[in-house]
Amino acid sequence: MRVARLHKNGSSVKVLKPVDISLMDPLIEKYKGKKGSLIPLLQGTQNLYGYIPREAFQKLASDTGLKISEMYGVATFYAQFRLSPVGKNIIRMCHGTACHVQNVTAVTEDLIDELKIKDGETTEDGLFTLETVACLGCCSLAPVMMIGEETHGKLDGKKAVKIIKDMRRKEVTSKN
Amino acid sequence: MENTKIIVGLGSCGLAAGAGKVYDEFKRIKEADNLVFELKKTSCIGMCYNEPLVEVIDETGSYLYGKVDVKMADEIIDKHLNKFSPIKEFIVSSDQFETKDGTFLNGQVRIALRDCGYIDPESIEEYEARQGYEAIKKILNEKIKDTDVIQIVMDSGLRGRGGAGFSTGMKWKFCNNYKAPNKYIICNADEGDPGAFMDRSLLEGDPHAVLEGMIIGAYAIGATEGIIYCRAEYPLAIKRLNIALDQARKKGYLGENIFGIEGWNFDIRIKEGAGAFVCGEETALMASIEGERGMPRKRPPFPAESGLWKSPSNINNVESFSNIPWIINNGPAAYAQYGTEKSKGTKVFALTGKIKNGGLVEVPMGISIKDIVYKLGGGIIDDKKFKAVQLGGPSGGCIPEYLSDTMIDYDSVVATGAIMGSGGMVVMDETTCMVDIARFFLDFTQKESCGKCTFCRIGTKRMLEILTRITEGEGKVGDIEMLEELASQIRDASLCGLGNSAPNPVLTTIKYFRDEYEAHIRDKKCPALCCKKLLTYTVIPDKCTGCVVCKRACPANAIDGDKKVVHFIHQELCTKCGACYSKCKFEAIQLN
Amino acid sequence: MEKVNVILNGKLTQAVKGETILQLARREGIEIPTLCHDERLEPYSSCYLCVVEVEKMRGLQPSCSTKVNEGMKINTDNEKVHKSRKGALDLLLSNHYADCVAPCKLRCPAGVDVQGYVAMVNKGMYREAIEIIKKTNPLPAICGRVCVRPCEVACRRNLVEGVGVGIDYIKRYASDIDLNSENKFKPEVKPNTGKRVAVIGAGPGGLTSAYYLAIEGHEVEVYEANPHAGGMLRYGIPPYRLPNEIIDAEVNNVTELGPVIHYNKKLGENVSYDELKSNFDSVILTIGSQSGTSIGCEGDDAENVISGIDFLRNMEMTGNRYDFSGKTVAVIGGGNTAMDCCRTAMRCGAKKVYVIYRRTEKEMPANPIEIHESKLEGIEYMFLTAPSKVNKDENGKLKTLSCVKMELGEPDASGRRRPVKVEGSEFDIELDVILAAIGQKTIVNFIDDINNNSDVPLQLTKWGDVAADKKTLQTSIPNVFAAGDGVTGPATLIEAIAQGRKAAKSCHNFMMDLPIEEDEFEFISKKDVFQKQAKEDYEDVFEHQSREEMPTIDADKRNNFKEVELGYSAKAAFNETLRCLECGCTEYYTCDLKKYSTQYKAEQNKFAWDYKKYQVDFSHPFIEIDNNKCILCSRCVRICKDVVNANAIGLVNRGFETFVAPSLRTSLTETDCESCGMCISTCPTAAIAENFNFKPGPFLLDTFDTVCNYCSIGCELTLQHKNDFFVKATGKEGLINKDGNICRLGKFGYRYLNDGDRITKPLVKTERGFLEISYDEAYKLIKEKFNNTKPDENAVFAGARLTNEEMYLAKRFAIEGLITKNITSFQYLDRGSSYENISETNVQFEQVEKANNIVVFGSELNYENPVLGYMVNNARAKNNAKLTIVTGDENNRMLKKADKVVMVKSYYYFIKAMNFYYLSHNQENRIFIDDNCENYEDYINKLMTEDFSHLLKEAGICCEECLIELADDVNKGMNTVLIFSEKHLSANAAAELRNLALITGKLGKTSSGIIALKESANSQGLSDMGIYEDDSIYELLNEGKLKNVLILGEDPIGCAKDEEQIKKIFDNFKFVVVQDYFLTDTAISANLILPASLQFESGGSYSNTQKVIQKFDKQYKTKTGKTNCEQLNDLLKTFGHEVNAVDIDEIFCEAIVNITNGMNKTLKYSFIHTETDNPGRMFNHGCDGLVKKFEDEFKNAFETSGKSKETIPILN
Description:
The structure holds three protein chains of three kinds.
Chain A: E1 11-12, H1 25-31, H2 38-49, H3 54-64, H4 68-77, E2 89-94, H5 97-101, H6 104-115, E3 128-133, E4 145-147, E5 150-152, H7 157-175
Parallel strand pairs in A: 2-3
Antiparallel strand pairs in A: 2-4, 4-5
Chain B: E1 5-9, H1 12-17, H2 19-32, E2 38-42, E3 54-58, E4 61-65, H3 70-83, E5 91-94, H4 102-106, H5 124-129, H6 134-141, H7 146-156, H8 168-177, E6 184-189, H9 198-205, H10 207-221, E7 225-230, H11 235-250, E8 267-272, H12 282-289, E9 313-317, H13 318-330, H14 332-336, E10 346-353, E11 359-364, H15 369-376, E12 386-391, E13 397-400, H16 410-416, E14 424-429, H17 434-448, H18 454-471, H19 479-492, H20 497-501, H21 504-522, E15 537-539, H22 549-553, E16 559-560, E17 568-569, H23 579-583, E18 589-591
Helix pairs in contact in B: 2-3, 6-13, 7-8, 7-10, 9-10, 9-11, 10-13, 17-18, 17-21, 18-19, 19-21
Chain C: E1 3-8, E2 11-16, H1 21-27, E3 51-54, E4 61-62, E5 73-75, H2 79-93, H3 103-107, H4 114-122, H5 126-133, H6 140-146, H7 150-154, H8 158-161, H9 167-179, E6 196-200, H10 204-215, E7 219-223, H11 232-235, H12 244-255, E8 260-262, H13 273-279, E9 282-285, E10 291-292, E11 305-307, H14 308-318, E12 328-332, H15 336-347, E13 352-356, H16 368-376, E14 380-382, E15 385-392, E16 398-411, E17 417-421, E18 427-430, E19 433-436, E20 440-441, H17 447-453, E21 480-482, H18 485-488, H19 493-511, H20 570-578, H21 592-599, E22 623-625, H22 635-642, E23 649-652, E24 659-662, H23 678-682, E25 688-690, E26 702-707, E27 716-722, E28 725-731, H24 744-748, E29 763-766, E30 769-772, H25 775-786, E31 794-798, H26 804-817, E32 823-824, E33 853-857, H27 861-864, H28 866-879, E34 882-887, E35 900-903, H29 907-920, H30 926-932, E36 933-934, H31 936-944, H32 948-955, H33 960-972, E37 976-981, H34 987-1000, E38 1009-1013, H35 1019-1024, H36 1032-1038, E39 1044-1048, H37 1052-1055, H38 1059-1067, E40 1071-1076, H39 1081-1084, E41 1088-1091, ...
Parallel strand pairs in C: 1-5, 6-7, 6-9, 7-8, 9-21, 11-19, 12-13, 12-19, 13-14, 31-32, 31-39, 33-34, 33-37, 34-35, 36-44, 37-38, 39-40, 40-41
Antiparallel strand pairs in C: 1-2, 3-4, 3-5, 10-20, 15-16, 16-17, 16-18, 22-25, 23-24, 26-27, 27-28, 29-30, 29-41, 42-43
Helix pairs in contact in C: 4-5, 4-9, 4-20, 5-9, 6-9, 9-20, 10-19, 14-15, 25-41, 26-41, 26-42, 29-32, 29-34
């Protein structure tokens, strides 16, 4: 007999709402039997749900024969993949060299203050997810951030916060 | 007016600067007023500091307007189009008269960038109108053999523009040597260096040039499939590539029996990266295409022998490919006329940082750093003191101002301890802290390390920790030596280039700016006044008007002072956030 | 093999083209360290420990993946390489939040392996526990009573419920048992060296020195000034704490080894250094610190002011108690001597005893238990009180003591708050006796004697102790060593023991002309380097369990010198061992990271910054995952993918954040994990280790190699054990399992060896249940019963786990003893005879590696014959071999691993249909058939009369195309290997498969042909030994014609697929004898049970499924008293037959004749046509009760293991 341990589960993963995995069928059909399709499958899945739900891994495993451990390894390796839902708008703050020398750190800090979330987190209202990224390749406009597909350049803290506020306002008015 | 063209630059940076709205405005006016001028799109011409850019071409010549906004758009229509009177003060470049910014373009030799900013990247016709797809047709028409194509490329002296600078022709030759049922030609468009956007601009501005380069490459090495591995962060580039691919397929340039040659089946597909800098490394890139974690493996075997799916594969960078059609069309000698003995041709640089004219420039090899910074770049913002340029991104190094006569060629740059890299050139001035820059790059490589080999995974982490503590005033005597020891071990015993070169930014900054390190460690001072934790904020009594703005801004309540009384900052409470400094309108807060 | 020339470390060396530098170096006997490389896997190059310098190559090259090239100049070790390797280790260790050893052992001055002996006590292995203790401490029974127990202070159990494990009590318990045991532990004494050592003083230090010197083979003589041995143990500690008998017993254990003690011999008085110098090679001074110090205030020379030490010693010397009746006694001091004095004073009848101490109870150096007991015994305390003056009466006798009150001020050098006088607080107390227990000092009154006789003077310290080198304990005189209180000043017992051993070691090295050095560097990883261990990390991780109290004599019955503490009960000792948290690493003795870190003198704290902390995962019943120890070599992930093909674990995250986790971070039990333990076998640390179901020590283990007795592959494995307790099994690079792979059966199947339920005596069934009888009685009974019927009513059944020798004797017994041909095995009952022809066509396992096309019929390889499964998976991973599974089972667990699956209902008809297809489409290999086969015409004629569509229908496949596709695949494919197991294919289906191989001409070529898998370790032996008979016995059984049966190693009832059918058969039996290890269902139904010996208790041989005969040795004396062979020989004798061969090798020689007889095969392969399919097996588990037991227990382990949901094991 060994020492008695308490079976404490580590910090449990948040239980998320179940998703409709049948949405993945066309995607799986498209890539079935093609080699090297793991990453496109995950990208496609993320496009469907905004993140990769647990069920999706299981579905991919049973429908394509891909191994869960490998998929999970890939999904956690690449910065692009998310395992939990994200906000409606993803703010990608460029932390490239040019942006760094133009003091993007201060801009990010102002945004963090405004949004009250840390890097990688999502605001409580689900509107924004903040991500710092390596380089968006718009160095001449540094500091730069990208919200959705739109790029905003030559930022300072004030300007960045204003963009967020404007978007919030728009969101509220459109709701009403 | 019917012969007048208005061309709006709609590259990523143009769009970021508001070019989309400008284009819409032109469109609105055109439709509203029923104007007959031709409204066109193009991509980035490289003059990013002047974005949005609008070119007006009329019978008299070409006029490039910079920093165009909606209001200016109206004005251009009003004055230039309606009244035939170009607005000189807005024009940054023209073939009709000299402009202040003219040197930016005139100092360049545009081969890779030959079409960027001149054609609509979404139009294959416009590409073909400028010799597009003529190179491959020439090869086919003149029945130039694969080995001869390779010889042409070798003769041109083109070296890998991704950074390592290996002879492109030689690489093709190796791959040509291996026979296999499947062979791959891969375009590395996973431009991940922070501070570099050459490839993005090329893909957005002239996607067909890359495709044509790849088709020629496929012909030369006998590839059966082409893959462009492109960063997912470049949605516009991917969009335009997809358009270009469709157009090329429709024209019979890709797909089955291409260019009418029975049995020549070759197509190209795009593989979107998923966000890992290390995938710029050849073997990691291939692992990623195969659907695995992008972890490099030991070479040899080189990809030319056993690459993607264990088949012979050839990987070249975007810029390398886009040079190829030009070289075929104009001959290797035309290319080799530019450059130095060992570095031929031109190189595209992304000029950024504390530079007045930031943007994309293509220069002949052999030009000096100084010329790029001052002649093309127009010098340092606010005319501050030029301190260094960073070349080669996280794998490169900082070249100090006193070496700014260094010629841009592969070997001269390596001699300084930096590397040519893919072309990111970040200019730094006296306010840039070199320790902080080293820490910045280490932070980058550390986060981007795939984690496979020990030195890169843990070694870069430890280096980062040392650098961080130096910038936070916790540096210890011996830290520089420990950095150097770790750096040499990481350089010598890492699996891939990411690890091998990760110490470069640290080693070059120690080499050229050791005194700055020592100031941080010994005196707990940051000479560039950049490292927050080493700064003290004090009030200059003469300048302080006692306006209370800083007092209110201070989140730590560290500022004392009543209205119209000189304020005082309690150092023991100050968290060095800099709020007072940025809020003060009277420059009454000083840093030291 | 193409050769290339390289310069390896300056020497011209021939290398094989294509090999790596590491492979070359290993062949050349050059050691290169590596953590990430395993020859079973493709090179990976992540640890960068194996770097070498290659001329003209930039940087350093990982030798595991760098291939040799002509002219390469390689340097495998130089300063740069060495530095880089150390650098890699420093970095790995900087993120290795783990303990190599438990804090108790680290804290113990003598370094006693507490975790190890606690684990032994837990198993009831007291002798082994003492063996562990005595590696560094020869006085456990004494220590178990009076040690100050730094280990218990260090014990992390303190962080769970505030009280450490009762380590000392456990030690005392084991020691007392061992002391009183007939078979007590006695270390092996090495041959006499002829060297002589004199030890001065028979205290703990002296005894320890003597003990370890004696073990080394030296002659030791001890000179003791007192009339008895023990030193302070006897003269300083009162017997109610440490009885003299205990001291005597342990002294006796020392002298038993050779040392002689001369009593009443005092150095400088009646024995001179001069004498020692001439008679001995060296001297060890263990003189102790014997003299008490006085109070140090005015009047302390008064009569009745006695030194505590003298007080205690006098009583022991004279054997008389002081009489303190009616007296008031004060003891000055707060240490353990003060405790001994006050409690002894009380026992001497004092009216009142005070302890006067200048600080508070918290600061008292005495053991808290002592303070507690003293209070129980009525001692009163005056804290914060210091004596200031002893007041004498006119006769110079003590009258009163003036004291002053104190208060605590600033902390002093010891960290304790310094007591400061409270002005004006003086007071007097009336006293009759004062016992001063302030301190002790060393008496060196022999110094002149030594210095007069020595060339070099013996140096002393400024405190008057003997000066000795701290690391070696050598004194200023080279051949004189010193240890214990005499060197350190008054210290603890355990420190004296530690020093005694160290002095002995130095002395030994000195005499043997070895360098006298301090202990060699040993790298020890410590969690404390990263963070001080705190409650948070422990209290929620372990179940709370309070400490077992030590029973004592009631406080009111202590007016004597009887031992107060009564010792643990067996149950209490056991319970207390369960409190041990097992802080030390289970792979302490085997960890490669530790090995190399020691070798390269790596430093864990060189870069001690950010580190990762993970929760250890015990949720899998056999496999433990501790990411804290992981160095990310990925070997486990790779072996699970490329060899096992289970993909149960993977890397998660990137860079510094990477860790290894089961799929989706669930428990490993929720994944496709096959529990093969291959990950454990490859892990270079203990990040993936066996989740033992017993306290695994770790111990230093003994090992032996044997052949696995589970399946028919014939893997060799190494069993690791301590005496008869088996701790683990590891794969050996064997004849069959060349790369040392073993499966879950081999890896975890050893656990039954520790099962206490094993049958060890013959048992006869009576109305009162089974009763033990002697072998002779059992034999007599068998003879009586079996001779009572007609010979043909008797039968012998021999299981496929018996050795060839046992089978041979079983057959002899049937034929000669019972005079019947009725010998067979239940396993093959009613299954036809076609299997027999197939085994000779087997493809060698190692050729699977080169196969391109592998078709498996039915078998769940990875579960049934896993090591072959690994070969198949590896061929897939390395060689892109195509794997097709033909199965009738939708839940076949191999489906996920296959490239192609064909579902069938009948293997027989499916294969027959394939054959029909070949022959009807003229696809047969005529050349092969003409050259090698016979009976072809007959076969084709008969087969062609059958109806293809009928065959297809019976085969039950989805479509004809799917059959044709596979048929073409097999026929056209190069290097096709067809694998089937008897478990799934009937004998006739197997025969058809053989026909298929003949038709397609696949036999007899490299990496091409059939692999036939049998179920049990020696199924092949049955056929070799002629026990695989036709089905006549099945008819006899069904007709109820058999009356008496002897069943050897089979469990037909327990393993029956149709239990009713088998029970019916058994109902007809009159007398059933079963020989087995455990009470199987069949054994329970028997009239007589014979105990079976294990394969390594007798030695012998198995024939694997490929007819490879592997012999294994006898390792153990069997617990059954008689081996199976001995029992069978005895039976033969009982039945009046001669026994020629007794020795196992002789039996083998006799048996081998049988095997060769069976090998007269015809030169040509014969086609065999069968009309219909025949029945499959009647029994599960190869009819082996042991396999059933394993599978049941294995399944059960999962059902009872805690299943966990997705978790994130990261803690920081």
